[in-house]
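Supplementary Methods S3. Input chains for the assembly prediction are listed below.
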Amino acid sequence: MIEQLRFILFRRRALAHKRVLIDLSAYCDRETTFEGYNRVTSGAHLYQSRLGLASYVGARARLSNTLVGRFSCIGPEVETVVGAHPTTDFASIHPAFFSTRAQAGFTFVSRDLYPEYGERRYREDFYFEIGSDVWIGHGSRLMQGIRVGHGAVVAAGSVVTKDVSPYMVVAGVPARPLRQRFPEATIQRLLAAAWWDMDFNKIALLAPFFSRADLLLEKLEELTIAQL
Ligand SMILES: CC(C)(COP(=O)(O)OP(=O)(O)OC[C@H]1O[C@@H](n2cnc3c(N)ncnc32)[C@H](O)[C@@H]1OP(=O)(O)O)[C@@H](O)C(=O)NCCC(=O)NCCS
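Predicted structure tokens for the full assembly:
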């Protein structure tokens, strides 16, 4: 409660200078950082996460330990699923037998015997990595350790149990590939161009070319040649 009040009174206001809009009922902990031009919508909670330039989070979403690239859209009620219990070898799934964290108020062990938070880590110890220009649909869930590649789309209500390759559209429980957003050659050109890494003002100038991927790519390639 005090942490929430402190957040509303101080941090929320300071972030507004970076064009970071955080709704009054949203919450971001002190370890969560923003690159700028971000939005966190009503009731969303962010813990130990990072939002790249222009990325936003929909209402009531819950992200933990998540690295999000630039220009990505995290839909309402999206959740990252953190924490695992052993389902083989150990006789019980109860953390009293493998974790020192005393989840139920007690533990039988003096050291951790199972990697509860997985072993996959991304830049600076994040458990999840969402690339740039990624759209995660309403109510989807990402299982611990997942990486979603640049340009990918996760359909509403999916449960993502495997990494999603760049520009792939996935759907369902568990999420399976539906189609690629573009032909392979276009995907390779978009990944090489990595338009999202450009300066915000340059992207704004190029905005009229975004209605067609081939148009944008031609323009970007033209600009690269002109700079040679
Ligand atoms: C995935 C999505 C973008 C559509 O992609 P698409 O490639 O145009 O897919 P289509 O509508 O042509 O459907 C292709 C197949 O996927 C299925 N499909 C589409 N969305 C699905 C979903 N959310 N879950 C499971 N299957 C889905 C369709 O039923 C269809 O199946 P079929 O081939 O057996 O008939 C869209 O369905 C979606 O989920 N959008 C997210 C909307 C959202 O969350 N909005 C709020 C946040 S901003």
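The pocket of coenzyme A is lined by residues 58, 73, 75-76, 137-138, 153, 155-157, 169, 171-172, 178-179 (CB under 6 Å). DSSP finds four helices and 19 strands in the chain.
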